[in-house]
Known about the structure:
heterodimer, A: mainly beta, Porin, globular, B: alpha+beta, outer membrane lipoprotein receptor (LolB), chain A, 13-stranded antiparallel beta sheet, 5 helices, 13 strands
Amino acid sequence: MILKKYLHIIILFIIFFLLGSIPTSAKVDIGGELAASLINIIDNEGNIFAYPQASLDLELYIPPFDNNQIKSAVYLYTNPTTGQLDFMFKKLYLKHKFNKLHLTVGRQPISWSFGSMLNPVDFTLGAIVMEEETGAKYQDAIEGYLPLNWNTSVSVTAALPENSQGIKWGLRGRTVIEGYDLTLNHVQEPEMEIMGAIIPASQRIGFTGKGDLGPFGIYGALGYYFKDNDNGDLAYLIGGDYSYFFEAGNKIYFQLEYLSMKKENLSSILGPFFAGNVTNNLNENIGLILGMVNYEIDEFSQINLMAISSLNDGSIIIMPRYRNQLSNDLSFNLSTGIYFGKEDTLFGSNVSEGAQQKPKGMISIGLTYSF
Amino acid sequence: MKKIKWFLLIGITVSILFSSLIITIAAEMTAEEIILKRDSNEYFDTAQMEAEMIIVSGSRKITKTMVALTDKKNSLVEFTNSQDRGTKFLKREDDLWMFFPDAEEIIKISGHMLNQGMMGSDFSYQDIMEADKLTDLYDFEIIKEEEFEGRPCYVLEGIAREGVKVSYYRRVSWVDKERFIGLKEELYTESGRILKETKANVIEEIEGRWVPTNSVMENKLRKDTYTEFTITQIKFNLEIPEETFSLQNLR
């Protein structure tokens, strides 16, 4: 599609044109984050493969003017497969706030997160995986956002997916009732071609809710994936969170959620790295339980333990992490991931022939510098 | 004659003493009056401020900077230091919303998080973003008068009113007698355990109000840790458009 091919160039031209109209007194700033880490992959035989990884998140901060907002952010990274430097635009958009409508055109993040670790009803499935942001949420799109009052809105999104000639449509309504944040959405995916395989057009509807029940935070999602034969698939998620304050003043935070959905839809939700073994019994209903515990050691450091387990086969991924903010702008991160499970289980490191080989574990040590 | 003179002298002395007592009683303020005067100084319709928060633990410290807008019931805070740049919080009544700048998404924060330290500091979200009058939240009584760092103060004890949601069940406040501003505050749980102590280090007169432009909050449950809060710029009673405290404005 011609629009898709030249969208970034068109947006750049518009941005440069508008930049010329910004008052010279406006403060334009550059900032971002530089990250460097050493990643160690442990295979089933106990062999360790280590490789360095670096990334630079660069953002141009332009103050809003005349109801316009320009955002530009580029992500440079070393490709783990090729070792070469690669880049992608995370943001390159222009937003204009009309009287009753906000219009955003260009490369932008489209995320319908509501606080859960997995989201079966996001605009792009797998955009957030266990609180880790993935590149999947950055889309070339036009978004119309209509605020109806301080907490109620409707948004319409037309995106141009990477692997498709068609348009992906999304409609989302959001409001607050009795203190509960509620959303209702609809997504229509076009036909896609991924590595030679044609994935037919599909659509889904979703509902999410988040609020408080006494001292607990609670949330949930319900999704319906339409199918050609009128037998759609249902997916649902329920979860909660809680904080406990110790005598010494430290705090521990718990989050627990349960997700039920068909196996064939699961790989999208889990994202590419945590896809596990999803090639067999695609029609099987999978129950996943996820838990997270976060303990603040002091004002600057914390340890975190996350686990995801399949209730169907007992396989599990355990992910301990440690983070320490060394100074205003520098932080140290240590994260690990260990897979437990028999052959052909969802998270088992031994997988059957034809399925993607998964490691036994992963350790990442790195530093992040913000500027 | 001599006797009459003595009686006259004693009578005059007693009268003077008695009159002084009456004047003294008439000049003493009630706890409610003191807190009302404090509220009239510290409570504002709207405010815009820039501030810096230094979180200290032992020999380590981290600085966060922010801009904030607040009215009677709502607050909007945006962090401007490099690590947290663009992160915003919106407090509307008892609800807290957070804007994540990278994903540009808005999440409603669970209620139990309101009492946790904002961005790792000793000031909770409630501490920073609460805008209610003390007279609406607590019943106060004067427990003593004493000097604090050379300033004569009323010392008042406030107990949370029934049915009102507050972060600290009991607070003991040292209120400057002349300027009616809190110089020191001890914050307690219902069980009597001291949680935090806050002290105003620097007080300036801004737009006719006494403002603590530098204060320190100490977490009494942890050793050797405190947060210093400095207001670098503040304006009161400015016009803030209604849509400022909205989810649309967080985006």
